[in-house]
Automatic annotation (TrEMBL):
Subunit structure: Homodimer.
Name of the protein in its database record: FMN dependent NADH:quinone oxidoreductase
Task performed by this protein: Also exhibits azoreductase activity. Catalyzes the reductive cleavage of the azo bond in aromatic azo compounds to the corresponding amines. Quinone reductase that provides resistance to thiol-specific stress caused by electrophilic quinones.
Top-level division of the source organism's lineage: Bacteria
Source organism of the structure: Ottowia flava
């Protein structure tokens, strides 16, 4: 069985095309997950809505707790890290990570950045080993999750690689860098553009993004079917992730 982590970060609760003033990123993540579910109804889907329920911002207590060895943490420190523990646990359980993240002021919404700050944690999702010659930073999620897609939306256009505004896109590189630091590589990127322009330009962009989502889901479903790991391999990975 495969586990899909479905995360939304838009401040808008409804979906474009279904609700008035709805979110395009929510429409794309919904489309992805529903297509996946239709093909694999037995899979588990974890829903994490940081747009509606943002994680806490990192505080001085949080930092002190995270840098205290696990065995030495006080009850209050363990409590302070409970949210981070839960978010990291979801990530470790996920085989497929579906991120719906709108562009706000050229980067991710603060709620999504708060999620990133909760999941990038020393000793949990990366390790620091100063004696290592190549790099002291060791990613600890190198095989969890196995496939990740960033479904984005922008009011303007030209933010994709090679576009006129690509140099102002600080969202896609930020997500790829933070996840890559943990070992989550090979991010797929799909975005709706022209939300603020509307009309034909938006309709065309939405149709293109939908077609790309469908094609990506079908490709990954095919890979899941052809590369399904044995139960033993699943267990090995789970043990390695928790070690
Ligand atoms: C606070 C805020 C900041 C935004 N900043 C940008 C921006 O920097 N560039 C851009 O092209 N669109 C920007 N937009 C437009 C959004 O990217 C666009 O509305 C997108 O569709 C939002 O995603 P959603 O539809 O999933 O809610 C911004 C919108 C909001 C609400």
């Amino acid at each position: 069985m495969t586990t899909v982590l479905h995360l939304d970060a838009s401040a808008r609760p409804g979906r474009a095309g279904t609700h008035a003033h709805g979110s395009h990123t929510r429409a794309l993540t919904h489309r992805f997950v529903e297509r996946w579910r239709a093909a694999r109804p037995g899979d588990t889907v974890i829903v994490r809505d940081v747009g509606q329920t943002p994680p806490a911002h990192v505080s001085s207590d949080w930092v002190a707790a995270a840098f205290t060895p696990r065995a030495d943490r006080t009850t209050a420190q363990r409590r302070r890290l409970a949210e981070s523990d839960a978010l990291i646990d979801e990530l470790r359980r996920a085989d497929v990570l579906v991120l719906g993240v709108p562009m706000y002021n050229f980067g991710p919404p603060a709620a999504f950045k708060a999620w990133i700050d909760q999941i990038v944690r020393i000793g949990e999702t990366f390790a620091y080993e100063p004696a290592r010659a190549d790099s002291p930073y060791v990613p600890l999620l190198a095989d969890r999750p196995r496939r990740t897609v960033l479904l984005s939306a922008r009011g303007g256009d030209g933010f994709d690689a090679g576009g006129e505004m690509a140099h102002m896109n600080h969202l896609d590189p930020a997500v790829a860098t933070a996840l890559g630091f943990l070992g989550i590589d090979g991010l797929a990127h799909i975005a709706v553009e022209h939300q603020e322009h509307g009309g034909e330009a938006l309709a065309k962009s939405v149709a293109q993004a939908q077609a790309r989502v469908d094609a990506l889901v079908d490709r990954w479903l095919h890979l899941e079917a052809s590369q399904a790991p044995s139960a033993g391999e699943h267990e090995d990975r789970a043990i390695a992730a928790c070690a």
